[in-house]
Specification:
The structure is a homodimer of 375-residue chains.
Chain A lengths: L1 E2 L1 H14 L4 H16 L10 H9 L10 E5 L3 E5 L5 H19 L1 E9 L5 H10 L2 E7 L20 E5 L7 E5 L6 H10 L8 E2 L9 H9 L5 E2 L11 H18 L16 E9 L6 H17 L14 H13 L1 E2 L2 H14 L26
Parallel strand pairs in A: 3-4
Antiparallel strand pairs in A: 1-11, 2-3, 4-10, 5-6, 5-10, 6-7, 8-9
Helix pairs in contact in A: 1-2, 2-4, 4-5, 6-7
């Protein structure tokens, strides 16, 4: 089914409202989830709504949590999300880091006792849309083995970096520090694709391409693990990916005062941590010079010689931006399993179910409820 | 030949003094170079002295340059190295970022019109030794192809991150954003080892393991290129390594107001850029909590299940720390080619040549000049 992004945002927000989340927080969470769907990061979009709704209903996520300030300096702030939803706390955090960046040149915020915050790129782009560059990271449930290890010790620990290189199209890098995210394996498993050697290890720490076992083994925490960027061992730099994952874990765990490694998602809640670092371009150079040089760099990359069989050199975030432009115009395609799950959530929450986007009005911003066209 | 680190530092410093570098700057450069040799990063140690001495003699590096402040806010400073040596400018920069970090919570410095600054980890560790965490990066001469590309567009753009996890043994991640650095290929070429598929591409952008061609092709800028971390294409995350390289280039080039990509090492000098971001642990959590949690994390990683055939899970920087302890005690092994080159530099500069470390006094800190033992 293909749905209009505004309908999807409204639907998501209503479901969260129904389980006791405030209007303000529900709006924020819906915006972050739908931003992922718009950018083609479907694993981090409304496909996650089930976990949020269930988390609130079973008490693991507190819908009434308030984000509190634990410590503050001119350029830094340490926040406690009170086991609430990750998105509202993270928006508060990045907005404070932005304000401090505007005031002092660079600002930083950390968050502890938080939950899944969606795509890291959302917050980096939020800073870029206000003219700041940003570095954002989060830890996550353990799925990645250290180099020479045979057990999941770290999350996929994504890192996002954005720069305000262009008002309409800022640069954004947003990537897990593992070779592939678990969502990619699940999609291949579902769609019948093959996984590659060097993506994951079995409980002996040996590379495996047995996709059903890896997918089930990760879910069951049965000793299977993803590999860090760079793959198995050190021959292709796996220790670098592992090092990057450790860096993200140190920022988000010990430095933020949050849980880390295997201690996340314990009895007292997820206890995740995030960090947000925002700086002013104008503090270091002129904005005009920065943008001119950055865009010339991108142009030179695009125009550079291509590998045989390739016709394009992309810039980080470019593909996601193109997907977003397309999905804003023609709607967001949702997988049947996600549509079914959203219908169940609607039923459980007493919310009007989501309808497909009317194909004839797709370019006109129609909401699309109560029609049944689309895929 | 095995030399004492103090002798090597003194020798290096004297050579630089002889070509017109000030005592203060020569001491700084010697300390950074020998730090690399101590940590086992031989490609970034005194093996580079030739380039520095020649650079100063032929006018590409100005020995009398002063680092000037271009712009300053409470938490940031933009510096101009005036085409001088990278190390003195970088020490000034990281020290200012540290001072700003202590004052406001987090501080940042950028440097433009600079030269090779040695190992990025040196500056990150300098911040950690004063109790701050740090992120450091630099751009470099173009050697790395973008994903789907067939030409070197970025340097190996290393990124270093340190945390003051322990007074004697801080955490430090320091890695090129390419799969392997060029120095690794040169060593394999010299020693007769093999390179692996996915490390480098030929001028068609296809993976190659023809080590003499790659080494020569990189040196001659003949279209050969290293691959970003993650390797060829996107299947193993090569686009993530390329994205990280782009991030480092944006910080060090457009944001620092320095040259970037193919424009470094032009007629007016290298024009390299660096950035240094330093933050206070105490601004965000208590130092005791931070250190206890970080060290527990490291202990859990070390104790985690090992892959079959492996007996150790390491922490980033651990191997380099062990090499440093060993080389402090037993001296730094220099390759014959480096020894020969240093002897030539000594001759050209009119400096007393470097001698091997006296084996019998190796643990006692003897200087070792004018002896001829050792390997």
């Amino acid at each position: 089914m293909r749905v209009d992004h505004r309908s999807l945002r409204e639907f998501t927000s209503r479901c969260l409202l129904a389980v006791g989340v405030s209007t303000k927080d529900a709006t924020v969470v819906a915006d972050v989830l739908v931003a992922a769907d718009l950018r083609g990061v479907d694993s981090h979009g409304v496909a996650r709504l089930r976990r949020y709704v269930d988390g609130v209903r079973d008490g693991a996520i507190r819908p009434d949590a308030r984000t509190t300030v634990l410590a503050e300096t001119a350029a830094t702030v340490a926040l406690d999300a009170g086991n609430g939803l990750g998105q509202p706390a993270s928006c508060t955090a990045v907005d404070m880091a932005i304000a401090k960046g505007v005031e002092t040149g660079v600002g930083m915020a950390t968050v502890r006792r938080s939950n899944h915050f969606g795509i890291a790129g959302y917050y980096a782009l939020r800073a870029a849309s206000r003219g700041l560059f940003a570095i954002v990271g989060t830890n996550a449930s353990p799925q990645v083995a250290p180099t020479n290890g045979a057990a999941p010790m770290f999350g996929t620990n994504p890192l996002a970096v954005a720069f305000p290189t262009d008002a309409d199209r800022p640069f954004v890098f947003d990537a897990a520090t593992s070779v592939v995210p678990r969502g990619r394996l699940e999609r291949l498993h579902r769609e019948g694709g093959d996984m590659r050697a060097g993506w994951a290890v079995d409980p002996n720490g040996e590379s495996t391409t047995d996709i059903p076992r890896v997918v089930d083994g990760l879910k069951a925490r049965a000793g299977y693990a993803l590999l860090p960027l760079g793959g198995l061992g050190e021959s292709h730099g796996g220790h670098k990916g592992y090092g990057l994952a450790t860096v993200v874990e140190l920022f988000c765990g010990p430095l933020a005062g949050a849980r880390w490694g295997r201690h996340v998602y314990g009895a007292e809640g997820a206890g995740l941590g995030h960090f947000f670092l925002c700086g002013q371009v104008a503090a270091l150079t002129t904005v005009a010079d920065f943008q001119a040089e950055a865009n010339q760099m991108f142009d030179e990359l695009r125009a550079s010689p291509k590998a045989r069989g390739q016709d394009r050199v992309l810039i980080a975030g470019e593909r996601e931006h193109e997907t977003e432009q397309q999905r804003l115009a023609t709607g967001i395609p949702l997988r049947p399993a996600v549509v079914t799950d959203l219908a169940r959530i609607a039923d459980q929450c007493g919310v009007v179910p989501l309808g497909p986007m009317p194909m004839s009005r797709s370019g006109l911003g129609a909401h699309g409820e109560n029609t049944d066209e689309g895929d």
